[in-house]
Amino acid sequence: MTINLDKPFYNYEQQIQRLKYKNIQIENKDKAYEILSCVSYFTLINSYKNSHLYKDNKFVTGVSLEILKDLYYFDLELQGILFKYLTIIEASLKTKLSYEISKKFGVYTPIENRNESIDLTTSYLNRKLYSSTNSNRNKILGKLRKHIQSSYENPLKLYKYGDKEKGISAKNHIPPWVLVKNIYFKDAIDWYSILPANGEDLKLNIIKQFYNKNYFNNEDLKNFFISSLKILNQYRNAIAHNNKSINIKLTRELDIRLVEKFTNDKYVFNSSDIKHMKESIFPILFIIITLLPIEYLRAKMIVELEQIFKKLKKQSNDLYNITLLVANLQPDFLDKLAKLVINIHRDKVNK
Fold first, then answer.
1. Phi, psi of 172 (to 5 degrees)
2. Which pTM does this prediction carry?
């Protein structure tokens, strides 16, 4: 029985013919073979066909295989920079989260991989400690407990089983600062989302360590913060699977009203920028800048972005312009981010 496959195999020569059909210029066939043996046809086509470079099932005139290759490698370089700073934000959130939970709820929760009855009465994972208005409370806490039960990675593994060769004994509980080391970014965000607001507001305690925005009301701060975290998590998941970055389609959007309020400066962000916040990597850049915990890191990120975009422009002005087009970035986006860094510093000085 012969099956007409939807996606049959194509050798390099056939791939080149299909690229030509897609209106992609092939400037050198030998180089084309080399490119396709390093970056797959699927990756090059699918990464950028949902961009301004692709119309009516073909690429616009002037797009070559070399350009797509260079765009792809620049994309990876940008991902590397942003992922580095994203992990700093992740670590910062987990540190602040575990600190507030330890201070408020204590450091005890049982090690649940042992054959014994589990009493969560005195555990910091006791559901009664968390917001009852969040319908996902039990599911989130259950997932955190499952990490304790099933994780075989350090430091949880060391706390659960010890290390006889190193003379390290197993512990009788898992403190929050150990648990956060073995959970995903999304788990930390979810854990934050169920913190109680009655009495001492633990959410605000955490948020105000990230932001100094006295002109924000508390609910706006909370909405802006959780939206920012969820957008970062979506981006993190995308690049972790080696997906496109510069023309990522975000399913979540920042509240434009809150963005304008956050910047509090029409020269950093104004209503004309709204269209560039959608289907653009700019919200990711904006969020990372606002959440980085140290001024030095914000300034360093700006310098690194300036360096790679300057290098790109020097390599090819056409490639630089195409990259801005695909990323839906305005030519002055780096100036806006630099001004944002200055504004954040000013807020902290005037705290």
1. -100, 5
2. 0.91
